[in-house]
Amino acid sequence: MATKEAKNKRRWGDRRDARRVKAPGLQTIMSYLMPNRTDCEVYLNETIDATKVVQYLETKNAEHPDYKTTIFHCIVVAMTRMVMERPKMNRFIQGWRMYERNDISVSFVVKRRFAENADESLMFFVPKDTDTLDTVSKKIVGDVHETRKSETSTGGIDAILDFLAKFPRLLLFLIVRIIRYLDFWGINPKFLTDGDPNYSTIFLSNLGSIKCPAVYHHLNNYGTNSMMITVGTLHKEPVLMPDGTAEIRDVIELGATLDERIADGFYFARSLKLIKHIFDNPELLDQPLGEPSEFQYE
């Protein structure tokens, strides 16, 4: 079995952050007929039974009262595992070509304060094969805590955006045109792409933290992100059980906007089944991400 280093060895036609993969004829032609990612969006909305995860979190949080593992942390880990086991979900199309990322990356926006005039900051991290829910949770909690210490940008892509925003309108227009050109050919400077959610595998929006439902959110033509996930509020509602009875359960709504060119609907549907399987078997969240779930698709 090839090592990760050998697998990611750069070949002719590869990008710095991804390797080129051969796309089926239909997807190749689609990239020319519909070159914009926003023209190829497919939106999925699913309500997932989170009762077992809620029970699991109650036990886990009782063990470490110093910080709280949340349902959002579980979603981050579940999504990451899904992409690890479903590699086509880590693909994107840019410059009329299909690529598969060398790494899986997750990004989301953090509000510095829960106030209308508070600034937002962009969070970006790359999970490791050895990561579990505990390590991912501590990473997120730590990064969010550091971000909320400051009312202003803490560096990285936030600092770059703040700097560019100061340029005169015409000059900024020309700079953005150049950046978009470099983006098309996959040769944007590393300092512009590292930490930018538009270049992440999964871009999450935790709307549940502000008591909002999982609404539709568009993709962006800039960058490489092909999967935008919105997370609604955890709540209770009647669920029809396998025996035909109705039961009040803890549920959470997910909204997923995907680029239909990276895979077909059958592949997307099976990926969703894996997410549901993880929520039905929350012990998988404590398993290192690099270890397969052994989920049997029906």
Descriptive overview:
- Helix content is 34%, strand content 21%.
- The protein has 298 residues and is an alpha+beta fold.
- It has a domain at 37-148 and 195-278: Chloramphenicol Acetyltransferase.
- Strands 2, 5, 6, 7, 8, 9 and 10 form a 7-stranded mixed beta sheet that branches. A 3-stranded antiparallel beta sheet has the order 1-4-3.
- The model is unreliable at 112-118 and 150-155 (pLDDT under 50).
Shape assignment: globular
- Uncertain regions: pLDDT < 50 for 5+ in a row? 112-118, 150-155
Q: Report the end-to-end length measured between terminal Cα atoms.
A: 27 Å
Q: What percent strand?
A: 15-25%
Total of helices: 9
Mean pLDDT: 87
Strand count, sense and barrel status of the largest sheet are: 7 strands, mixed
Q: What's the SSE pattern?
A: HEHEHHEEEEHHHHEEEEH
Share of helix among residues?
A: 25-40%
Which structural category fits the helices and strands? alpha+beta
CATH topology grouping of the domain at 37-148 and 195-278? Chloramphenicol Acetyltransferase
User: Can you identify the CATH class of the domain at 37-148 and 195-278?
Assistant: Alpha Beta
CATH superfamily of the domain at 37-148 and 195-278: Chloramphenicol acetyltransferase-like domain
List the helices and strands and how they pair.
Layout: H1 4-7, E1 18-20, H2 25-33, E2 41-49, H3 51-63, H4 71-85, E3 91-94, E4 97-101, E5 106-111, E6 120-125, H5 133-147, H6 157-164, H7 169-185, H8 190-193, E7 202-206, E8 227-231, E9 235-240, E10 246-259, H9 265-280
Parallel strand pairs: 5-7, 7-8
Antiparallel strand pairs: 1-4, 2-10, 3-4, 5-6, 8-10, 9-10
